[in-house]
Amino acid sequence: MDSSLVTFGSWLQNRSFALAVATSDWAYPFVQATHFTGLSLWVGTTVATDLSLLGMGNQYQTPLQLFNVLFVWNWVGFCIAVLGGFLLFSASAATYLINPAFLTKLGVLIPMALMLHIVIQRKMREWGRQETPRVARIAGLVELLFWISVVTAAVSIPYFG
Amino acid sequence: MLTHFGEALQDNSLIVMLNSVGWMAATIEIVHYFSMFVLVGSIAVIDLRVMGLAGQQQSATKLAQRLFPWMWAGMALNFLSGFVMFGGIAASYIPDSTFHMKMEVILAAVIFGIIVQWKVPAWDRLPAMPKGAKIIAAISLLLWVGAILAGNEVPALSGLG
Fold first, then answer.
1. Which residues of B touch A154 (CB under 8 A)?
2. Any chain A CB within 8 A of the CB of B36?
3. Above pLDDT 90, what percent of chain B?
């Protein structure tokens, strides 16, 4: 692997906040819970929006109306997840940076899923009306599969460790 | 009695297979995480709506009717996958006090989730969300975050999982 990445990882995991997460008896589960709480908001609101684009569930509101309610907490969840994720990463950065599952998750799957997520959000005014166009349904389905693949990569990290 | 049940479960050939074949165990873990995000994300948004912190432009009842089916679907998958993972080392989980705490927090969270679902239409008909509703929703939200934390404490404190 790229040695500058590993050098960066070693530097990061020796910062005092990273050492605190890694060595404290109580901090690690709290940081993990922060990551998972953020992910719950992010994934929960994203899945609800994608399923509404797919026409699944009851149709008490258009996908656009649902999206308008969920938008703020979608990104609040994202920020909480990134904060918790960064701290978890810092605790053993050098190990993560040579893990193929982690590199696939962070370097490939998350950027692609995020790009599609932003495209869907920008298209929502057009796609989220009464009649959802076919392309919107496909985008919603692909985004769902992307986030499932992100969780798959995350769960696979210890298998490669 | 419970110990016998745990041992029988642990020896059940289906449970053994699901926990020992690599890709099956990984799939169950992926389902457990993803469904947890959908479950907690859905109830969290409804709690935030009742607390006056999300989607005030839309009726709480409509939002709840939209999200509760995903909460229940998430819960069903989460409990089913959790049961399989529990079954794999049931005899170790059954006497573990941290695992007991996790189950108690989840039970309390489910009860509060049901109360919120049951009361939302009545609260929504009032001119403003009553203070008691906001308190119940805040407790529900705290309990669900607590359930995630308790889940992380089982491996952290007891080394199980």
1. 33
2. yes
3. 93
Mean pLDDT of B4-17: 93
Chain centre distance of CA A1 = 25
CA gap B147, B1 in Å, rounded: 27
Please answer whether residues A90 and A15 qualify as being in contact, where contact means their C-beta atoms are separated by less than 8 angstroms. Answer: yes
CA-based nearest distance A13→chain B, Å? 20
pLDDT (tens digit, 9 = 90+) per residue, A95-142? 999 999 999 999 999 999 999 999 999 999 999 988 899 999 999 999
Tokens in use for A132? 């959802």
Q: Does B41 touch chain A (CB under 8 A)?
A: yes
Is the CB of residue B105 less than 8 Å from the CB of residue B150? yes
Q: Given the structure tokens 């998750």, which residue do they identify?
A: A105
Domain borders along chain A are 3-160
Tokens of B34: 């993803």
Q: In Å, how far are B16, B43, B61 from B65, measured between CA atoms?
A: 38, 11, 6
| Residue in A closest to B155 by C-alpha | A29
Q: Could you write out the DSSP letters of every residue in B54-85? A: S-TTS-HHHHHHHHHHHHHHHHHHHHHHHHHH
Q: The complex's ipTM?
A: 0.95
User: How far is A29 from B66, CA to CA, in rounded Å?
Assistant: 32
Q: Which residues of A35-72 are buried (b: 16+ CB within 10 A; e: fewer)?
A: bbbbbbbbbbbbbbbbbbbbeebeebbbbbbbbbbbbe
Structural contact between residues A136 and A50, judged by C-beta atoms closer than 8 angstroms: no
C-alpha distances out from residue B76 to B21, B80, B99, B147, Å = 23, 6, 19, 16
Helix residue spans in B89-158 (DSSP H) = 90-93, 97-125, 131-153
Q: Do B33 and A44 touch (CB under 8 A)?
A: no
